[in-house]
Amino acid sequence: MSLKKIMRLLSLLLPHPIFAILSFYATVQTFSIAQKKFPKTASNNGIGNAYRHALWCCFIMMYCCKVSSPQKALDFCKRLTDMHEELFPNEPLETKMDLHNNKFGMDYFMELLPGIHRQFFEKGFFIDSLEKKMADAKVLKSVDDDFEGHLVYLKD
Asked: Is the pTM of this model over 0.85?
């Protein structure tokens, strides 16, 4: 990673050290869970990758909401996950898939928020429910495809 990219990342993380630590923790947990559940597709463009991105955002939101407001957690999560896609660029269709699934995870968390106090969220709320939502996942074939409300993936 270039010095410029490192500086951009630090400019996001240093003003929010607790969010940074919680996001790192969420990242490690998410990767571990996705690898166990979807060992063949969690690290490529398959359905496991869609699950991993949505779960990642749910976990970041969950942990950051325990120490701050949902809106601040959402703003940080969006900035962090968008920056991740900028710092580690993919092909346009892969980027669209990742950004879409990140948004899906953030939207899903915010959808659940009114029914559950943010302090009581647990990992289990997301692990199984997101896996069930994969039954309706769509295959993204073009950057013009719009599958709002569904997880998307490129291939298995």
From this structure: yes
Domain limits of the chain?
A: 3-153
How many angstroms separate the Cα of 142 from the Cα of each of 28, 79, 120, 152? 30, 24, 39, 11
- Between the alpha carbon of residue 150 and those of residues 23, 86, 103, 107, 116, the distances in Å are 24, 23, 10, 11, 22
Which parts of 69-154 are beta strand (E)?
A: 138-139, 152-153
Amino acid residing at 83: M
DSSP state of 122: -
Smallest Cα–Cα separation from 153: which of 126, 133, 129? Answer: 133
Q: How far apart are CA 135 and CA 116, in angstroms?
A: 25
Give tens-digit pLDDT for 79-104.
999 999 999 889 999 999 999 999 99
**Residue 54 — φ and ψ, nearest 5°?**
-65, -45
**Residues contacting residue 59 through CB under 8 Å, at least 6 positions apart:** 26, 29, 30, 123, 126
Enter the DSSP assignment of 139.
E
